[in-house]
DNA sequence: GTTAGCACTCAACAGCAAAGAGTGCTAATC
DNA sequence: GATTAGCACTCTTTGCTGTTGAGTGCTAAC
């Protein structure tokens, strides 16, 4: 059966009506729409066809129709119109994405929280894995007789730090010395390239204080590998209470179960995560059965060529894709601008050069 | 009316039955208990009396009775027996409270998460406000051309750090110099005593680079005041789904509303927070109307004489007070031991000395 | 090809009766 | 005088029933 323009138009009307009302859509309802001049009976025939094509689902005989995953997919891919943000929205979003913090993690989390507030949906964020970061500077700072801090900064401006519990007391000078050696041999490597063997190599450079150095280096290695860890966070979850699909506690519980299993969520998101484009996962396209009635929209933000993170939303499949996608892309773009310093400037320059051609 | 032993015994039986079953307790039910040899009719008379005394509530005429806030209060204050932990539990709790992290925040959060897992209840934690901490060491470390890190450690071992976005490039030497000056004039003060004027005083010590120094000091002041901020966190909230009192979404929503209003929660907890003893807030003793059917149990953990934090649980008023209190006290004790280094040692020494008398 | 009309389906809702848990009171019993 | 058996009464819970209404699919007319 062919999907002609009329069918597409009807499908679009059904999806949009369902997004607004959360109620199965009946033929009369669509027939009454000003831009569709067809009787309910005709619409009914078309709806029957659309159901046969797997784009609509009828919850029960005497109910209207609801979009299937396929229906939403078609809508998102080719029916939906791009949402044009109003000037007021742009102003609001700009204000919301202004960084009020210094640290990468906090900037991202702040922006994510603001995004959740604006869309009224739970948000998911993945902080850039630093493994791809290129070490610019490593510093070991003595703090206390048994404590030191390792500070690693990368080319794109990420700064991570980690406390080390020392087994021996060290002097400030010793820390400076270690700092110098670490920098000489590790800067320029990506963080994932730093492993115990090249840390230990460092060690052989100086012979004295071998034991102490060895234990410090062991700790440095540990710290670096912990710094490397990917992180996922979720915010604004209680937004789901706004939705009629969550008036049942069982559903809420299910969702919380999924959200609390951070490891699995991180795995799914990482696998699905887009490189450049926004990605929409609808219903059972999400490999978590509990989320078969939900959708996830993800978009990347970039700090540099290699360093990227992900921002996204999670909500009922019945969501305002067009508006949410616009907002998400605006937010990730702003976030990239805020976070990528060197990279961002380079890119802007490139754009200008291209514009000059 | 006098509260004789028999009434106390019956009240205890009712509270404990209700804690277990979550169902209003009837007279027959209590009469059947092996240690109470009274007919249902007698129990009924006593229950009538207990209700008149405001210790029990009857949801409706044909239902059993439920403890009132006052009933729980009496139970907690004088009926409940102290729960003796089994050896296996002690073992389990010890394992759960072992610190796997370095940083104060993470240790506390880890222990709190473990506590939530063990009690099956949402936990509340307040990190020690550092304002009472005595500055031991301040360090300004240059990281990048426009970034420096301020690291403040206090006598009891808390280490906090904060990034500063610099307006001028500074040298490592300059940072060292600032570090030296800061230490000379600020160490020994409590963090709350550090204010702009005594930071600025520092500034006048050296005349050169005045402008740069001024802007750095301004940032240092900002960083210190942010370091000072009290923090509250909540974990394991989805545990509430286990309770029949949360089968209604409205209730869940209400609870989430309360939990998400961190500022208010912090205020309430801080006001109620115990100095040394465990504190139990039951039902409408909590100044948040939405929590009138809940209880909060709080216990302090200590890093030093002045530095304390709070760990607690939040759950339905119908909770196993005896067991939860035992566990909470064990957890906060372990946490204090882990966190208080100097203080802990001193205290232990004192105990030993006293033991020698 | 489109539409009016109509029989049919099914969830949702209100009303009602029966069941069951528990009470308070009275009168008998220890 | 305290305790208890017995009984009428109350009120929620549950299950059943009929009604309503939204929506469909099909047929026949336009």
Instruction: Give the number of domains of chain A.
Output: 3
In percent, how helical is the residue content of chain A? 40-55%
Count of individual helical segments of chain A: 13
Mean pLDDT of chain A: 88
For the record, the CATH class of the largest domain in chain A is Alpha Beta
Please describe the biggest sheet of chain A, giving its number of strands, its sense, and whether it closes into a barrel: 5 strands, antiparallel
What is the chain-wise order of helices and strands of chain A? HHHEEHHHEEEEHHHEHHEEEHH
Between the first and last Cα atoms of chain A, what is the distance in angstroms?
A: 49 Å
The CATH topology label of the largest domain in chain A is Beta-Lactamase
CATH architecture of the largest domain in chain A: 2-Layer Sandwich
* CATH homologous group name of the largest domain in chain A: GAF domain
- From the spread of the alpha carbons, the general shape of chain A counts as elongated
Low-confidence stretches of chain A: 342-357
- Oligomeric state: homodimer
Proportion of strand residues of chain A: 15-25%
């Amino acid at each position: 059966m062919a999907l002609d323009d009329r069918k597409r138009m009807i499908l679009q009307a059904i999806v949009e009506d369902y997004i607004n009302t959360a109620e199965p859509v009946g033929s009369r309802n669509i027939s009454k729409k000003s831009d569709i001049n067809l009787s309910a009976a005709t619409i009914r025939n078309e709806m029957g066809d659309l159901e046969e094509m797997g784009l609509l689902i009828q919850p029960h005989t005497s109910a209207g129709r609801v979009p299937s995953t396929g229906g939403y997919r078609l809508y998102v891919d080719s029916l939906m119109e791009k949402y044009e943000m109003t000037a007021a929205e742009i102003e609001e979003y700009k204000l919301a994405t202004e960084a009020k913090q210094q640290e990468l993690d906090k900037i991202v989390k702040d922006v994510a929280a603001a995004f959740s507030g604006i869309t009224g949906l739970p948000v998911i964020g993945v902080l850039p894995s630093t493994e791809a970061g290129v070490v610019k500077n490593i510093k070991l700072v003595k703090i206390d007789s048994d404590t030191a801090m390792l500070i690693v900064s990368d080319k794109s401006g990420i700064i991570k730090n980690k406390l080390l519990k020392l087994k021996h007391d060290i002097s400030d000078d010793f820390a400076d010395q270690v700092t110098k050696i670490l920098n000489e041999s590790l800067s320029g490597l990506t963080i994932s390239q730093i492993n115990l063997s090249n840390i230990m190599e460092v060690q052989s450079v100086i012979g004295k204080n071998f034991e102490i150095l060895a234990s410090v280096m062991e700790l440095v290695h540990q710290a670096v590998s912990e710094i490397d860890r990917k992180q996922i966070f979720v915010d604004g979850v209680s937004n789901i209470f706004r939705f009629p699909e969550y008036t049942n506690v069982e559903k809420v519980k299910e969702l919380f179960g999924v959200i609390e299993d951070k490891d699995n969520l991180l795995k799914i998101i990482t696998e699905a995560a887009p490189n450049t484009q926004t990605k929409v996962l609808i219903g059972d396209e999400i490999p978590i059965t509990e989320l078969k009635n939900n959708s996830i929209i993800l978009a990347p933000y970039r700090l540099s060529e290699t360093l990227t993170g992900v921002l996204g939303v999670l909500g009922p499949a019945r969501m305002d894709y067009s508006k949410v996608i616009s907002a998400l892309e605006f937010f990730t773009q702003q976030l990239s601008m805020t976070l990528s310093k060197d990279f961002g400037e380079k890119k802007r320059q490139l754009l200008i050069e291209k514009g000059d051609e």
